[in-house]
Task: inverse folding
């Protein structure tokens, strides 16, 4: 089992940038495909981005494509989400999640970090 802890959230003005981090512990980090999700108040949790075990493959939601970048450092057991050109509609609690190649969904989740973008 892997444990996940997010950090890096905060309050930023529209057009600004933040970088979220998600530190993993407990199992071999490189065995896990990683994803970022977010949940805004009153809305369902939605997919943001995902990255392969090696980091060679990434995929983004259309709403963040070209503005957000997911990356990972397997030596540091950490996955990142660099967020640029932030918009008020990006305001949400951001969660990282992990799954192995055998999982159809993400069974492991962090506690979330709040991102607030002011207009």
Result:
């Amino acid at each position: 089992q892997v444990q996940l802890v997010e950090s890096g959230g905060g309050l930023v003005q529209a057009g600004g940038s933040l970088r979220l981090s998600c530190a993993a512990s407990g199992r071999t980090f490189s065995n896990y495909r990683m994803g970022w999700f977010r949940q805004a108040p009153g809305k369902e949790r939605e997919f943001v981005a995902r990255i392969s075990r090696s980091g060679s493959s990434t995929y983004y939601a259309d709403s963040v494509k070209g503005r957000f970048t997911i990356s990972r450092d397997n030596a540091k057991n950490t996955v990142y989400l660099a967020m640029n050109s932030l918009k008020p509609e990006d305001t949400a609690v951001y969660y990282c999640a992990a799954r192995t190649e055998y999982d159809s969904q993400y069974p492991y989740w962090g506690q979330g970090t709040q991102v607030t973008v002011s207009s």
The radius of gyration is 13 Å. Residues 49 and 60 are 4 Å apart (CA to CA). The chain has a mean pLDDT of 96.
